[in-house]
Amino acid sequence: MMRAESLGMSGVTSPVSNARVTDGDSPPQSTRVMDAEGVVLVECTGRVTAFNSQAAAHFGIPVPLHIEHARLPGCEWVREDGTPLPPRDSPLARALAGELVDASLWHVLRPDGTRAELRCTAVPVRGGDGQVAAALLRTHAVDALPVPVLDASRLLAEAGALLGTPVDAEARLEPLLQLLVPALGEGALLILRTPDGAGAEALRVAASLHADAGRHTLLRELLTRYPPEPSAPDGPPGAFASGAVGRLSLLSEEHVAALAKDAEHARLMREVGPHGCLSVPLGARGNVLGTLMLLRSNVMRVFGAEEEHFLTELAHRTALYLENARLYREAREAVRQRDEFLGIASHELKTPLTPLSLKVQLLQKQVVVLAREGKEVPTERVAEALDVVQRQVRRLSGLVDNLLDVSRITAGRLRLEMEELDLASVAAEILYRFSAAAAQAGTELGLEAPVPVVGRWDRLRLEQVVTNLVSNALKYGAGQPVVVGVEAHGSLARLTVRDHGIGIAPDDLARIFERFERAVSDRHYGGLGLGLYITRQIVEAFGGKVSAVSTPGEGATFILELPRGDIPEEWISAHAAPGPTQGE
Ligand code: ADP
């Protein structure tokens, strides 16, 4: 005979050792199992010997034949605050361990994500030898918690007011989360994808909030110490990259174990939760900008379809807002750059005009005065004036050419006429053109080009590139020697322009190849900030690349690498360089 150490139990026949479960020592509360009562009887071996339809309804599972380690398949026992309960603390496990669980309230998360609040009584059932042979669990459903009404239109209207102007967009994200917390969840996160420029991608927590002050601090600590990763295999971050809706009914111990990087990470996850979470993509114009995530510390409130629908709508509006704010920022930046450029361009165009018009006026006066006196204008005076005029006109047309080039490049109209050329000869020719100006400035120009380096390029554009680099080396070279080197590396031609001037700060090295970008003050050096931009565009049109290395204060070296194009194989071998130069 087995005895159930129970209150109020009768009428359930146990197949265990043909025993009949009796009321035990206490007086029965009821003489029959009520309709609404779920009854489960499990042997120590895990065999289920009773599981009525009410129990199946309470736990939301089909009648199991076997239960491993007192765990009802697909169900999780949780505490009142929604945190998962260790499996050994469940009523069934306690009863199997010989403990009596008396009509107390328990919370269960069912496989479909819904929750049940059950009044449970669990008793050990002992065999004739006094050992626990089975456990009997009786369950009664408690009235469901009232479901809060979601006032979506009010929340969306408030969000609309917040997301009005695109200025300071990110500062509005935390107030946006305040609309959701605690109305829809105990916590909320807004995570943005940030391409790092090298093709990879990182995630950035743009705003985070938890209704509970202690958990708010823990959440921030968790996110700072263990920032979300786009490559996280499972769990909430899965939605970041895919743009799918992510839903987690319960962050169980298994999830924590799978996601945690170390013990500290696991501790923070357990303490913060989330015990339930819903994440929706921030999608705008076909792009997924990130994720909006609601966290629940109390899984008794499961996220429903209505909340998912609302959150998706809000995320879409937020994404459009962020996207518009980005476009607005970019447009303002473009206008600022244009205004700054117009200022510099007018100054640059004016600079040669002043000496030019002075010279012309002076010459005009002299011609008039001399003519009145019936004298001839001395030829050398005219020649000297015309020299100045010609220099300034050349400078002006150079500036205008640069402007035209930029508009050609922007419109994609940079046309190249490829022909076979020797880069070493082109470099020599350009240095020759600069020789007079360099001599005047006392700057030494050197060429290191031991062999011809032949390839297929556009002559005028190639000359323009070399001219830009050499003129910069003279301009920023502080009068120190400038050396141009040309060599071949198999199918690549390499040209370097080395100076020993002011140099370039590391942060500016990449920027100076962009349009209008300059790394010097316009009070000290003239220029439009277009030369290197045009250079890069031409070099890239040749399929090559241009870069710079520099130590500020010690000079800069610009390196040009150009594919030699479709040229006969014997040319490459005939003029092949002995190998990479020293130091490479
Ligand atoms: P610009 O010389 O007209 O300003 P560029 O596009 O030719 O425009 O150059 C962009 C910027 O790069 C310059 O303003 C200068 O700050 C920097 N730079 C270019 N060449 C050198 C060099 N050889 N040494 C130091 N700085 C340089």
- Annotated CATH architecture of the largest domain: 2-Layer Sandwich
The largest pleated sheet is described as: 7 strands, antiparallel
Distance between the termini: 90 Å
Poorly predicted spans: 1-35, 233-241, 577-584
Which class best fits the helix and strand makeup? alpha+beta
Shape: elongated
Helix content: 25-40%
The CATH topology of the largest domain comes to Beta-Lactamase
Q: Output the CATH homologous superfamily of the largest domain.
A: GAF domain
Keywords: Kinase, Phosphoprotein, Transferase
Catalytic activity: ATP + protein L-histidine = ADP + protein N-phospho-L-histidine
EC number: 2.7.13.3
Protein name: histidine kinase
Brief description of this entry?
With 584 residues, this protein is α+β, with helices and mostly antiparallel strands.
Q: How are the secondary structure elements laid out?
A:
Layout: E1 3-4, E2 37-43, E3 48-51, H1 53-59, E4 76-78, H2 91-96, E5 101-109, E6 115-126, E7 132-141, H3 152-162, H4 173-180, E8 187-195, E9 201-210, H5 213-225, H6 238-242, E10 246-248, H7 253-259, H8 263-272, E11 276-284, E12 287-296, H9 305-372, H10 379-410, E13 418-422, H11 423-441, E14 445-448, E15 454-458, H12 459-476, E16 482-489, E17 492-498, H13 531-541, E18 545-551, E19 555-563, H14 569-574
Parallel strand pairs: 14-16
Antiparallel strand pairs: 1-6, 2-3, 2-7, 4-5, 5-6, 6-7, 8-9, 8-12, 10-11, 11-12, 13-15, 16-17, 17-19, 18-19
The chain binds adenosine-5'-diphosphate.
Describe this structure as you would to a colleague.
The chain folds into four domains: 140 residues, Beta-Lactamase (2-Layer Sandwich); 178 residues, GAF domain (Beta-Lactamase, 2-Layer Sandwich), CATH 3.30.450.40; 76 residues, Orthogonal Bundle (Helix Hairpins); 157 residues, Heat Shock Protein 90, CATH 3.30.565. The protein has 14 helices and 19 strands. The relative contact order is 0.06. Strands 1, 2, 3, 4, 5, 6 and 7 form a seven-stranded antiparallel β-sheet that branches. It has a five-stranded antiparallel β-sheet with strand order 9-8-12-11-10. By secondary structure, it is an alpha+beta fold. Helix content is 38%, strand content 23%. The longest helix has 68 residues. The site of adenosine-5'-diphosphate has 21 residues, from helix 12 and helix 13. It comes from Corallococcus aberystwythensis.
